[in-house]
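Record copied across here:
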Amino acid sequence: MRYINSMQHIQATTYNDKKLNSDYLTKILSDCPSSNRLLLSLFSQPNLNQMSIKQLIAWGELFEHEPATIRVATGRLVKQGFLLAGQRGNYNLGTTNKSIRILASTWRHSLAKIEQWKGGWLCVYSAHLGRISKQNIRFRERAFRLTGFEPLEKNLWCRPDNLTENANATFTRLVEIGLENTAILMKVEHFNNELARSPESLWSPEHLENTYERLVSIMKESEQRLSNLDIKQATKESFLIGEHVIRKINQDPLLPEEMVDASARKKLLTTMIDYDRTCHPIWHEFLFSS
């Protein structure tokens, strides 16, 4: 009887995991990018740093964007400096928001940014910055999110001091991404025990590890499925999954191994690298046929 109950538990757990993976995949595939997001995601790919307007329109049609919408979005991104207009209707990546571009294109090396944690913390105090505008606050919080900071208290953001870059480099990166340069960065060796919550509790290791595992499963299942899809379906699915996973990798707080399963995080990265190798030939075939 105990064996039967154990098997029933395993089967129920497997079913629930598959259901969660299926729901997550549905969410990913329904998250069609805006025209701006699509173009910036494409140009952040090292093998797609130059494309013609015809190719961009073909990509837009995959996500039901009209040619006129892609033309307008392209022109707007050129004016903003995100794209550069070349000869014969070709476009290259611009120079605006260089730090975001670097972050988007260097995800393969994200784990090299981590070093052994000695128990210290990096903290940023922001109360004196005020609420200048909703846009400023959005840029500020995006900078914190992309560098792994979480609010310990109102206007006090922190993260483990376990990055290979020094504190000045972290602050420079925060400012380049959107934090005001008058914010105050501190290195903290110890927090008092009377805090309402411990800094370690700001992150959920279980949530991070479940996400790592789920995304690995989604990529492996997709990789097996892509060869049976037509080129447009395969391009669309692989783009949406790849973009989502890269966004998760770039937003990962890079916690020390004392706080999260580092092997699960590494498996996510290596699986994404393999998936990326599968995607690019599909995308080039799509562009060649467009």
Residues 2-29 form the longest helix (28 residues). The chain is about 55% helix and 10% strand. The CA atoms of residues 223 and 278 lie 7 Å apart. The radius of gyration is 21 Å.
